[in-house]
């Protein structure tokens, strides 16, 4: 019976699983200005796998049922070991008549391990085509013994196989050993990936920094650093690295997009517009880009260009991003003061994507202005259910409950809002009012 | 009031290093697994065996009494009932002066001498209202089988309660019974007879000690009890008879005692109605301090009374009722106590424990120090522990126990914090600079204002038109999660659960309108070659407004390599040939079955 307490949670700023904690003030815009993704992190300018994955240990409401929601159900499911890789392997085998090209089970790996050239080809076949890291591990360990542990290539492959099998500490050891033999960019990157999977972003940052000192001008490391800082919620540090990336590679889409969104959310839409124009010149033309340009034009005061951008965006949009475009049209309509148009736009957004929590929240506010209290309440409730990472619907619902005299409910909702955004002043103010109400005689 | 910045100290309680001032507390002893969690009134420090080594006496809600000598448990026993306070007092002048231990629990005070149960004092019963006695007498006379008589008595008791008669517990229990059979059963079981009259006991809420005629540590003293029936009793020093009874307007919850019984004494009582009454020589004084919120702690400090309130404020009043000042705190107050040193030097300070685990020391309104305990404090007691005056015993919710000692050289003088603007005032706001680009753009805006406005208005009209078209399309076709067609206002949400090949679609149907929808049916249509729906149709006889209906549609994927498809869900009514609402459910990729033949 050891009742001594051990700290359960990682320290602020050292884990990817607690995006709302940070070791130092990031200096970036608050959650009111810059919205957050479902993982509780500020939106980045570039959609990449992993960043939007809901964190497993984050606050309540993010359970396995919400993992299946979203525009593309199933893609954001919780990680299973190798599920994706196994399927790719089986699917690629299917097309062949007469069974597999190489029967991995019947190979004598020891024999092949003595012949480096064929062994390397065979190992890559196992890893990349057959997706069988277990066999690749066997072959690589035989082969690395055969060359007296001198060849970095085998160590890197061993690390890769370990990584795919989820044996992260072994993978780390192999990659480090491989780097001792030969400094290779890909090995560095893979080692950083291992650290990210281990939830040790600071080690990853160290590794990236060391590697970028070695390979000056290698943008992969700079991008990796910037991404890691983004995930740790210190956006301003990330921005510096995106700028460095652009010095070396002036057409890097990820850097341009992230810098653009940074400028947009720090109240410089005219600069953001310039970055988006660069992307357009680079040949990117999709609904998201036109939508962003429309927003930039609107907030930078270029009103004549705004709506034509949205028009193009709607033309290019498909089911995955149409709701977002309509949502932004609704925002512009609110900015213009045309609430009828805004109402229609938000309604269309939720019809295109029934899981669009932000639109539900805004429809709720508009319904409230019309005086439909019950509808507003149910909209806020829906928005909260669909987007537990948003603080707006919880606060709106709490405020409405307060005005209706439902103090208990209001208190619960305000607390929920603070869970999503611990620094929200208005929610704190509401709780303060409620507390004085509760405690007064 | 300056906030001292805190660094994290570990569980062993290492002194905070980067504090501007050294903490005046020394860590004497910490037992994280003491397993006893006490409120402030459950802890008492006393020289139990007159050997100069002060013991720590603790009682808890698990009905235990425990005495620590130093860091070892000297004595532990079960209590017969749940305690509410523990105190020691001296019943006679003796040599050596061995104090008597008193544990208040329920309506009794259990007296221990020489660590042995000695006697108990029971509070006098409350007089039961004659109306109630009459009713019970008639109930007793009646035959308990006669349900009408019992019912009649029940009604009369109920009427008496409605008229404001304070009833005994027995009557309240009786009134809680609804069934005639159980009522007559109750009367039979609790029938008062000649020997056993209707009785009502009260309960002790707080207990303090008042010195009789000498102001010395071991002088003869007497117990002061606050009770649930709004009374304050003062017992004589043998704890056998109440010698003074005072009736208050509310139930006392905290008391503070000053003076000598034979000369002049003053009892400050904080009550549950949020008022603070003063009893002087057996009389309730007319000056009452009214608080805005409920009190959570009471400490008397010289001529001042410090009251902690539920709204995180400590108010300081002069004991005659004038308010001196208030201390506003960031967190809720969990307990308050007074630090008092008389031997080595004379010092007094107020100790306030907060809900976030901080223990603060105040001299008047000046904060002297803040100590972080990283646990939930439930009780604090100041006093002499062992031979060390100025000890602080802290009991935690986790059952941990911590003892801290005030440094003999500790400076408890108030230091004036330099007044002036807060340091935040000098930090400029981070307003981004207007870029050159922005200036250029504004000049374009200035020059071509008319053209820009025209283009914008034209585009806006076009957008309004296209939006309205899309919106009308939406209304007519019953697409989207909300529908208002046919006068009904229905919401439909679908969610896919499962990894495959077995899926489940959970449908949430909610009627958001004001009127009920009748005879609705739900239908699911899909690619028959890929998915099998064992039950594609559901019938909803009525949709009550605002009620959420859950439907579960099981889906089986027939071919996990066949890609994905979507499932359409329609909610139809019998009034229209257009569905009220429809939903398109995109199915995820199906995993291969884990077990063959599943």
UniProtKB/TrEMBL annotation, chain A:
Domain of life assignment: Eukaryota
Gene Ontology BP, a term: non-motile cilium assembly
Chain intervals with Polar residues compositional bias: 66-79
Disordered, as annotated region: 1-81
Key words of the record: TPR repeat
Intervals holding TPR repeats: 287-320, 323-356, 357-390
One cellular component (GO) term of this entry: non-motile cilium
Pfam families: TPR_16, TPR_8
PANTHER family: TETRATRICOPEPTIDE REPEAT PROTEIN 8
Protein name: Tetratricopeptide repeat protein 8
Organism, scientific name: Polarella glacialis (Dinoflagellate)
Lineage of source species: Eukaryota, Sar, Alveolata, Dinophyceae, Suessiales
Automatic annotation (TrEMBL), chain B:
One Pfam family it belongs to: BBS1
Annotated signal sequence range: none
Gene Ontology MF terms: patched binding; smoothened binding
Annotated ranges, domain Bardet-Biedl syndrome 1 N-terminal: 25-280
GO biological process: non-motile cilium assembly; protein localization to cilium
Domain Bardet-Biedl syndrome 1 protein GAE: 490-591
Ranges of Basic and acidic residues composition bias in the record: 1-21
Positions in coiled-coil regions: none
Superkingdom of the source species: Eukaryota
CC terms in the record's Gene Ontology section: axoneme; BBSome; microtubule organizing center
Region ranges (Disordered): 1-23
Name of the protein: Bardet-Biedl syndrome 1 N-terminal domain-containing protein
Organism: Polarella glacialis (Dinoflagellate)
């Amino acid at each position: 019976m050891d009742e001594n307490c051990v700290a359960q949670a990682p320290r602020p700023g050292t884990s990817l699983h607690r995006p709302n904690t940070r070791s130092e003030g990031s200096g970036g815009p608050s959650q009111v200005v810059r919205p957050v993704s479902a993982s509780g992190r500020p939106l980045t300018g570039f959609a990449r796998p992993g960043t939007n994955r809901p964190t497993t240990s984050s606050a309540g409401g993010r359970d396995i049922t919400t993992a299946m929601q979203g525009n593309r159900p199933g893609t954001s499911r919780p990680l299973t070991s190798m599920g994706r890789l196994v399927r790719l392997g089986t699917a690629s085998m299917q097309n062949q008549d007469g069974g597999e090209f190489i029967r991995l089970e019947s190979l004598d790996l020891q024999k092949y391990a003595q012949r480096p050239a064929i062994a390397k080809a065979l190992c890559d076949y196992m890893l990349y085509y057959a997706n069988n890291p277990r066999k690749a591990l066997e072959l690589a360990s035989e082969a690395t013994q055969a060359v007296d542990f001198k060849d970095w290539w085998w160590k890197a492959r061993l690390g890769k196989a370990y990584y795919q099998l989820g044996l992260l500490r072994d993978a780390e050891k192999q990659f480090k050993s491989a780097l001792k033999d030969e400094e290779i960019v890909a090995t560095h990157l893979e080692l950083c990936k291992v650290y990210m999977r281990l939830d040790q972003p600071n080690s990853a940052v160290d590794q990236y920094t060391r590697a970028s000192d070695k390979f000056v001008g290698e943008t992969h490391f700079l991008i990796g650093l910037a991404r890691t800082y983004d995930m740790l919620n210190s956006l301003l540090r990330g921005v510096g690295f995106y700028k460095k990336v652009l010095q070396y590679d002036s057409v890097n889409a990820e850097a341009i997009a992230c810098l653009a969104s940074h400028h947009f959310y720090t109240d410089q839409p005219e600069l953001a517009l310039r970055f988006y124009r660069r992307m357009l010149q680079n040949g990117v033309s999709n609904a998201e880009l036109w939508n962003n340009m429309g927003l930039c034009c609107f907030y930078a005061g270029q009103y004549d260009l705004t709506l034509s951008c949205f028009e193009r965006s709607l033309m290019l949009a498909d089911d995955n991003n149409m709701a977002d475009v309509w949502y932004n049209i609704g925002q512009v309509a609110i900015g213009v003061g045309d609430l009828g148009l805004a109402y229609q736009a938000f309604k269309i957004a939720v019809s295109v994507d029934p899981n669009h929590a932000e639109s539900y929240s805004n429809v709720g506010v508009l319904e409230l202005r019309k005086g439909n209290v019950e509808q507003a309440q149910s909209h806020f409730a829906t928005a909260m259910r669909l987007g537990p990472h948003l603080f707006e619907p919880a606060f709106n619902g709490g405020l409405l409950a307060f005005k209706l005299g439902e103090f208990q409910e209001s208190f619960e909702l305000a607390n929920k809002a603070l869970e999503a955004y611990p620094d929200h002043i208005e929610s704190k103010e509401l709780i303060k009012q409620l507390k004085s109400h509760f405690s007064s005689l | 009031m300056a906030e001292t910045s805190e660094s994290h100290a570990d569980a062993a309680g290492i002194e905070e290093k980067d504090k501007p001032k050294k903490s005046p507390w020394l860590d004497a002893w910490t037992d994280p697994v003491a397993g006893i969690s006490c409120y402030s009134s459950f802890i008492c420090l006393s020289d139990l065996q007159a050997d100069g080594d002060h013991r720590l006496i603790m009682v808890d809600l698990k009905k235990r009494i425990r005495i620590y000598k130093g860091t070892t448990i000297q004595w532990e026993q079960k209590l017969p009932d749940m305690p509410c306070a523990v105190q020691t007092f001296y019943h006679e002048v003796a040599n050596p002066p061995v104090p008597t231990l008193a544990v208040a629990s329920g309506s009794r005070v259990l007296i221990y001498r020489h660590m042995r149960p000695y006697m108990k004092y029971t509070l006098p019963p409350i007089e039961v209202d004659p109306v109630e006695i009459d009713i019970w007498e008639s109930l007793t006379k009646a035959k308990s089988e006669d349900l009408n008589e019992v019912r009649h008595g029940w009604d009369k008791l109920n009427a008496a309660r409605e008229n404001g008669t304070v009833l005994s517990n027995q009557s309240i229990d009786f009134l809680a019974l609804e069934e005639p059979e159980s009522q007559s059963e109750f009367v039979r079981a609790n029938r008062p007879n000649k020997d056993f009259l209707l009785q009502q006991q009260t309960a002790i809420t707080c207990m303090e000690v008042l010195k009789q005629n000498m102001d010395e540590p071991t002088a003869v003293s007497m117990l002061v009890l606050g009770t649930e029936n709004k009374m304050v009793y003062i017992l004589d020093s043998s704890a056998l008879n109440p010698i003074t009874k005072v009736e208050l307007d509310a139930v006392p919850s905290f008391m503070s005692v000053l003076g000598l019984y034979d000369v002049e004494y003053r009892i400050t009582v904080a009550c549950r109605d949020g008022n603070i009454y003063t009893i002087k020589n057996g009389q309730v004084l007319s000056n009452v301090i009214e608080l805005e919120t409920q009190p959570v702690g009471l400490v008397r400090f010289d001529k001042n009374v410090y009251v902690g309130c539920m709204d995180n404020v400590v108010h300081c009043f002069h004991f005659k009722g004038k308010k001196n000042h208030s201390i506003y705190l960031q967190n809720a107050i969990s307990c308050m106590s007074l630090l008092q040193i008389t031997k080595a030097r004379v010092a007094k300070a107020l100790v306030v424990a907060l809900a976030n685990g901080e223990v603060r020391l105040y001299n008047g309104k000046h904060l002297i120090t803040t100590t972080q305990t990283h646990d939930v404090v439930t009780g604090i007691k100041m006093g002499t522990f062992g031979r060390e005056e100025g000890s602080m015993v802290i009991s935690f919710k986790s059952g941990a126990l911590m003892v801290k000692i005030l440094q003999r050289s500790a400076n408890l003088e108030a230091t004036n914090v330099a007044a002036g603007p807060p340091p935040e005032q000098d930090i400029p706001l981070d307003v981004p600079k207007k870029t050159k680009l922005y200036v250029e753009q504004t000049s374009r805006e200035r020059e071509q204002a008319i053209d820009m406005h025209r283009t914008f208005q034209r585009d806006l009209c076009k957008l309004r038109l296209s939006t309205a078209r899309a919106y009308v399309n939406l209304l007519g076709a019953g697409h989207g999660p909300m529908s208002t067609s046919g006068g009904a206002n229905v919401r439909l949400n679908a969610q896919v659960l499962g990894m495959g090949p077995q899926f489940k679609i959970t449908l949430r149907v909610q009627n958001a309108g004001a009127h009920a929808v009748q005879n609705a049916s739900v239908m699911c249509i899909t690619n028959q070659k890929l998915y099998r729906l064992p039950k594609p149709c559901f019938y909803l006889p009525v949709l009550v407004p605002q009620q959420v209906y859950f439907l579960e549609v099981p889906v089986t994927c027939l071919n996990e390599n066949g890609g994905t498809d979507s499932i359409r869900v329609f909610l139809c009514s019998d009034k229209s040939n257009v569905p009220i609402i429809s939903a398109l459910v995109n199915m995820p990729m199906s995993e291969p079955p884990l077990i063959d033949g599943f």
